[in-house]
Design a protein that fits this description.
Strand order of the largest sheet of chain A: 3-1-4-5
Helix content of chain A: 40-55%
Radius of gyration of chain A: 21 Å
Structural class of chain A: alpha/beta
Strand content of chain B: under 5%
Largest interface: A-B, 30 and 38 residues
Oligomer: heterodimer
Number of domains of chain A: 2
Order of helices and strands of chain A: HHEHEEHEHEHE
Strand content of chain A: 5-15%
Distance between the termini of chain A: 61 Å
Largest sheet of chain B: none
Distance between the termini of chain B: 46 Å
Order of helices and strands of chain B: HHHHHHH
Helix content of chain B: over 70%
Number of strands of chain B: 0
Radius of gyration of chain B: 18 Å
Number of strands of chain A: 6
CATH topology of the largest domain in chain A: Oxidized Rhodanese, domain 1
CATH architecture of the largest domain in chain A: 3-Layer(aba) Sandwich
Shape of chain A: elongated
Shape of chain B: globular
């Protein structure tokens, strides 16, 4: 019985090892390679901004960009923030930035438990020529916890 | 009394278990291929559940479909059937748990069972996963046809005895 259980566990581990190996091997080829561990190799160099400073900038009318998917944006976002989802960046950027002013300050937020949307959008904005970027890495939850204005 | 035994006999018959095994195998291969073709879309679905930390999302999207494919392949070919079935029971248990937690939290997402295009997350998808898990338990308990590894081991044993 103990031998049978051991064999069963060994074979299950073999299935696990095969699955992981083939999955990673398959990701080495093709144009749509995924970053295996998200946020590991591609750290952004955009400076962070704390929540109080972000609020001061918000009062001054600085542009806030929500990097999360539109479905999450529609449920609630920082008042006045525009939505540029990380996965639809090119389309949303063309829609929102009809006349981009590259020197204007932009604060990007959108970090969730499962995705670093903010870093992805910051990298894309940097590549488009925007230099004055800041990341509100505490995300929307900290903003809401402080009781700062949100929409809708 | 015999009349009552008849459906029970059918339900516990190894041929039924074998048919369910083949059904599960084809289901898994079909589900896995859709996710393997577009891992980025599958990763987005996983991220939408907000259950895994960001560093584990892509890794899961890359490996989970391959685990399903391997289990499906093993079930179809009769290799390591018991281990693959047990592995699937664990997977379905995890999926059901994840879907239930997300539904209770009010997450609005596609279930992701068959890749990016799929049913909206609902109690029906959870019942469906539980049903598949029950089929796996049936296969684990009653299936004994065309187990290739068992045959090889048996022939080894016979050779050893001879």
């Amino acid at each position: 019985m103990a031998t049978q259980t051991r064999t069963l566990i060994q074979r299950m581990l073999l299935i696990l090892a095969l699955g992981v190996s083939l999955g990673l091997l398959n990701n080495t080829k093709g144009p749509d390679k995924l970053e295996i561990v998200s946020g590991w190799s591609s750290k952004t160099h955009v400076p962070p901004i704390n929540i109080q400073e972000a609020r001061r900038k918000h009062l001054k009318g600085i542009l806030f960009v929500d990097a999360r998917p539109n479905s999450q944006y529609r449920l609630g976002h920082i008042a006045g923030a525009i939505n540029i989802p990380a996965d639809l960046f090119d389309f949303a950027y063309k829609m929102r930035f009809t006349n981009p002013r590259y020197q204007d300050e932009i604060i990007v937020y959108g970090k969730t438990f499962s995705r670093l949307y903010d870093e992805k959008v910051c990298r894309r904005l940097s590549s488009m020529g925007h230099e004055n970027l800041r990341i509100l890495s505490t995300g929307l939850s900290a903003w809401q916890a402080e009781g700062y204005p949100t929409e809708p | 009394m015999k009349a009552f035994n008849f459906p029970k006999k059918i339900l516990m018959h190894p041929i039924l278990a074998f048919c369910l095994r083949i059904y599960l195998a084809s289901l898994l291969v079909y589900a896995a291929i859709h996710k393997i073709i577009d891992p980025a879309a599958f990763a987005n679905i996983i991220a939408g559940y907000e259950l895994l930390p960001h560093w584990a999302v892509n890794l899961s999207a890359l490996t989970l479909p391959w685990l399903e494919l391997i289990c499906g392949f093993f079930l179809a070919t009769g290799i390591f059937v018991r281990s693959a079935t047990l592995f699937l029971i664990l997977l379905f248990f995890l999926f059901t748990g994840a879907l239930s937690v997300s539904l209770l939290r009010g997450v609005s997402a596609t279930c992701g069972c068959f890749g990016p295009v799929g049913d909206e997350l609902s109690w029906t998808t959870i019942i469906r996963d539980v049903f598949w898990m029950l089929l796996c338990i049936h296969v684990l308990k009653y299936d004994r046809y065309l187990h290739v590894d068992k045959k090889i081991l048996l022939s080894d044993f016979n050779l050893y005895r001879a």
